[in-house]
Design brief:
CATH architecture of the largest domain in chain A: 3-Layer(aba) Sandwich
Helix content of chain A: 40-55%
Strand content of chain B: 5-15%
Radius of gyration of chain B: 33 Å
Number of helices of chain A: 5
Structural class of chain B: mainly alpha
Order of helices and strands of chain A: HEEEHEHEHEEH
Largest interface: A-B, 13 and 13 residues
CATH architecture of one domain in chain B: Orthogonal Bundle
CATH class of the largest domain in chain A: Alpha Beta
CATH class of one domain in chain B: Mainly Alpha
Number of domains of chain A: 2
Oligomer: heterodimer
Helix content of chain B: 55-70%
Order of helices and strands of chain B: HEEHHHHH
Largest sheet of chain A: 5 strands, mixed
CATH superfamily of the largest domain in chain A: Glutaredoxin
Number of strands of chain B: 2
Chain lengths: ~180, ~150
């Protein structure tokens, strides 16, 4: 066996292990920094308009249909949430902050009741321009929503450009939402 | 006549025996079988390693209802799969379809086989030739040395 082959024979497995370790380290670090979620799925709705729906209002607010968000004057968010969902409670301050900064946010309450939503909004503030109720959860299925909260970014032509499954974080706002706003405003 | 009337009266009961109810939807045993076969091929998006048929998540329950409604309406398996993929993407299919994104996945066994074959061929080619058999003189010299 030549020295080169010997070195290759010993070095190759070592290199494979090192590359694997590096890969796993990157995955774990990105997961820790909320930059990567192995359970997140790409939404088939991205690049399309939301499917037809017509949802009633909630808590004295106006509901909305798909045509109401077909051509918004400014980019907007549609936020699916529920009073019974813990991550929704976590993201509430961030949603409220975005609304204060002037971003139109329309809410859809998923499988919820009017009294529970009223309590939730009384405690966390109401950041929503409009608030619809999807009590059956069937519109959610048509959107491909598989849990709450989910937030959809809709541009001025009514096309969905991004979807975040799970609570919005400051990192996501800085790294993903702000660039989208710059691009589509 | 009486017998005929009796059997006519029993007919709906017979049909009823063939009906099953799952997640609040009543359908025939055959329809239920079809619905289960479809649900077994779909991933529950809440508990991502379970099928829609096996999962206890409420979303999976709703999707089971939708599948059964489509089966009762007479939609084909393909139509129902398309309904799900349109909403949740190909991730919803437990068996990934053969498409550009998954070509590498399906080609992997053949690539591994080809790589193994290449290594086998390469190491065979580089095998050091066996030394020539000893001549009579070599044998004599060896005996002398080993004595």
């Amino acid at each position: 066996m030549t020295p080169l082959r010997r070195r290759l024979l010993f070095g190759l497995p070592l290199a494979v292990v090192a590359a694997g370790g590096g890969g796993f380290y990157t995955i774990l670090r990105r997961m820790q920094n909320n930059q990567y979620d192995p359970h997140a799925l790409p939404s088939p709705l991205i690049g399309h308009r939301p499917p037809a729906f017509n949802l009633p209002g909630l808590d004295g607010m106006q509901g909305f249909t798909n045509t109401d968000i077909a051509a918004p004057p400014r980019p907007m968010l549609v936020n699916w949430f529920a009073s019974w969902c813990v991550p929704c409670l976590q993201e509430a301050p961030i949603i409220a902050q975005l609304a204060r900064l002037g971003l139109p946010i329309w809410g859809i309450a998923y499988q919820d009741t009017a009294p529970a939503i009223a309590t939730f909004l009384a405690q966390n503030g109401n950041p929503y321009t409009r608030l619809a109720s999807d009590a059956s959860g069937l519109t959610a299925i048509n959107w491909g929503v598989y849990g709450v909260p989910e937030t959809y970014f809709i541009d001025k032509t009514g096309i969905v450009r991004s979807r975040w499954a799970g609570a919005l974080t400051l990192d996501l706002v800085a790294n993903e939402l702000n660039p989208l706003l710059e691009r589509y405003s | 006549m009486k017998r005929l009337l009796l059997s006519l009266l029993l007919l709906p009961a017979l049909a009823f025996a063939q009906m099953v109810t799952r997640d609040g939807v009543t359908l025939t045993a055959q329809q239920e079988q079809r619905a289960e076969a479809i649900g077994d091929q779909l991933r529950c998006l809440v508990c991502q390693n379970e099928s829609i048929e096996a999962s206890g998540a409420s979303l999976a329950g709703q999707l089971r209802v939708i599948i059964r409604q489509h089966v009762i309406a007479g939609d084909s398996d393909r139509d129902i799969m398309k309904f799900m993929v349109q909403r949740y993407g190909i991730f919803v299919l437990l068996k990934p379809p053969f498409m550009p994104l998954t070509w590498l996945l399906y080609a992997m066994p053949f690539l591994a086989l080809a790589l193994g074959g290449l290594i086998a061929w390469w190491s065979r080619r580089n095998r050091i030739a066996a030394p020539a058999p000893l001549t009579a003189a070599d044998e004599a010299r060896l005996d002398e040395l080993l004595r």
